[in-house]
Amino acid sequence: MAKEQFPGNDVVDIIKIVINETFEEVQDGSELETLAEQWTSTIEEKVLWNLSKLNKPFKYIVTCAVVQKNGACFYTAASFFWDNYTDGCCTIRWENSFMYCVVTVFGLTI
């Protein structure tokens, strides 16, 4: 029986919808410091919940970073030892005039 491949296109769609829903009413950066923690938790939880509804044989890991757009550098890295055919990851970077949001989903076949 062939193993299923990481549903990358579905994952990208889910991430984009959740990010847009989360930030659709954010008008300026005044709430960034007080709400960044809440936004990251909300995005991670909603993405994970929507991924579980796909009913695919995967374990998922979701990360989210919200950072102020102030000219500072932001670097992230990851290393993997996995099955390149079935496992995968997607990263989406969203931005507006005052912040960046970076969401990464890792999917590991069960």
Automatic annotation (TrEMBL):
Q: Which Pfam families match?
A: Tctex-1
Superkingdom of the organism of origin? Eukaryota
The terms describing its cellular component in GO are: cytoplasm; cytoplasmic dynein complex
Q: Which CDD domains match?
A: DLC-like_DYNLT1_DYNLT3 (cd21455)
What Gene Ontology molecular function terms does this protein carry?
Answer: dynein intermediate chain binding
InterPro entries for the chain:
Tctex-1-like, Tctex-1-like_sf
GO BP terms:
microtubule-based movement
Member of which family? Belongs to the dynein light chain Tctex-type family.
Give the matching PANTHER family.
DYNEIN LIGHT CHAIN TCTEX-TYPE, T-COMPLEX-ASSOCIATED-TESTIS-EXPRESSED 1/ DYNEIN LIGHT CHAIN
This protein's name: Dynein light chain Tctex-type 1
Q: Which organism is it from?
A: Nephila pilipes
Lineage, opening ranks? Eukaryota, Metazoa, Ecdysozoa, Arthropoda, Chelicerata
**Name of the gene encoding the protein in the UniProt record:** DYNLT1
